[in-house]
């Protein structure tokens, strides 16, 4: 799994510390969104297309508002009941759950449902993210550096 934290050169880190928090977050949002758009395009080309619903639901979304984290992510939207993508991505078991309250018992019920055939996940989004992680990281650092320089010249 790729490391979500960005470690740049010392000059960039020093410049980031001189910016206001709002300018810093703006630079990070802009850079990560641009990089995620490129990863989204690569993920769309790697997605299976039986109906094309999952390909159309691929979205670039910002992270939940937080004081600690800023950025964007590539995810599958759940519009119009497209929840089944999680079964394709992570895998699932085929057949009816046996026993009463089988879905609630979790670990206690694993032996009962062992005969259900497991369909392994395809991990398409993870593979695309991992294969493009290094290039995306370097591009993101470059874009953040350009945005920081733009903000510093604007403020000066």
Short description:
With 156 residues, the chain is mostly helical. It has helices at 10-18, 21-46, 53-56, 85-90, 102-105, 124-131, 133-155, and strands at residues 58-62, 72-76, 91-93, 118-120.
Write up what this structure looks like.
The strands form two sheets. This protein has a two-stranded antiparallel ribbon. It has seven helices and four strands. The chain is elongated and about 65 Å long. With 156 residues, the chain is mostly helical. It starts with 9 loop residues before the first helix and ends with a helix. The mean pLDDT is 80. The longest helix has 26 residues, at 21-46. Helix content is 51%, strand content 10%.
Chart the SSEs and their pairings.
Blueprint: H1 10-18, H2 21-46, H3 53-56, E1 58-62, E2 72-76, H4 85-90, E3 91-93, H5 102-105, E4 118-120, H6 124-131, H7 133-155
Antiparallel strand pairs: 1-2, 3-4
Helix pairs in contact: 2-6, 2-7
Q: For the CA atoms, what is the radius of gyration?
A: 21 Å
Query: Quick one: how many beta strands?
Result: 4
Specify the biggest β-sheet. 2 strands, antiparallel
**Number of DSSP helices?**
7
If you average the pLDDT, what whole number results? 80
Considering DSSP H and I runs of 4 or more, what fraction of the residues is helical? 40-55%
